[in-house]
Amino acid sequence: MSFAESFRDLVPVTKKFVYLNHAAVSPTPLPVLEAAQAYLREVASEGTIAVNRYEADDFKGLREKLANLLNVSWEEISFVPNTSYGVNVVAHGLDLGPGDNVVTDSLEFPAVPQPFYKLKKRGVEVRLVRPNLDSFEDDVLSAVDGRTRLVAISHVSFNTGIRVDYERVAREAHSMGAYVFLDVIQSAGAVKVDLKHVDFAAAGGYKWLMAPQGSGFLYVKKGLIEDPPFYGWRSSKYWLEFNAEKFEVDKGPRRFEIGTIDVAANLALAKSAEILAKHTEEVSSRVLELSGYTIRRLSEEGFEVVTPTEKRAGIVIFKVKDPQRVVKELQAKGIIASARGQGIRVSTHFYNTKDEIEKLISILRHSNG
Ligand SMILES: Cc1ncc(COP(=O)(O)O)c(C=O)c1O
Question: Is ligand 1 within 6 A of the CB of residue 21?
Fold first, then answer.
């Protein structure tokens, strides 16, 4: 039995639904759920004894598991409650001023561009490129100039499914003196992500990383934003002295965490990262195989697919006449997907099957016409 087949048994939603909605919220697999539950049970019976046990290494062990999956150092991984928090840390941590610009684009989920709108009040220009799918990288890069401080984009687009060549964007942006922020919520856990190439990244854990809402990470390359935009008791080198008068910014990843983190949710995230890191090749090739199969089958059935095959990850978007109605009909028949972009978004994780895609196709045949 392959890893994907055996893992499928550990995902309870597969017994009830054909779940094709990992780009929205992932169902929690049992080992990931158990990591959070074990902690909560121990806190229930031991209180601070359990809390102190888990916090003894300042979450170095958890950071290492994520760092390993993302090919960076544990010192570059901070726990944040969602992607948006991570974008804001970067937006307000870079000290941008009048005449500086940030390049982003209109295909982004609002979590990426909108934090920068606040900087307009300080004279920062936000360049919202309207890219074409087949020239995304060129279009974004053409807006970068000598005053660009940051390019902020997603690795995989939530509403078109395209997978961006971030290595190229980073290489060219860096050569013009700009940093790169990458939103990896639609890629981490599904396809290979190597954050060494970029300067900043963030993701909530609740999509392809299969962890609970409230878990998430921020990656800040070593040497950048050493002075965080917000201070809190956990940002301090002397945090365990509980002394209001004694403060010095900690050099480690705790500096961005400001206060108490969601320990249960991030234990689950670290568990998931540990599992996925052991099987990166299989996970990534299954995700691509299933999205490729979905594109091929939808095209054969006459649907117009928006996601380009050669630039796909795990998301497939295709057009139907009335996406909201079709999504409701699918749900009534036990198939869970979303209406996004120009149609329906199908997002299969590595433990989905081709049979499930065939079920989707057979229902679509009757509901779209
Ligand atoms: C690309 C992208 N970024 C961010 C988010 C969500 O942001 P947050 O984790 O802050 O809720 C989504 C949610 O669909 C998304 O698709």
Answer: no
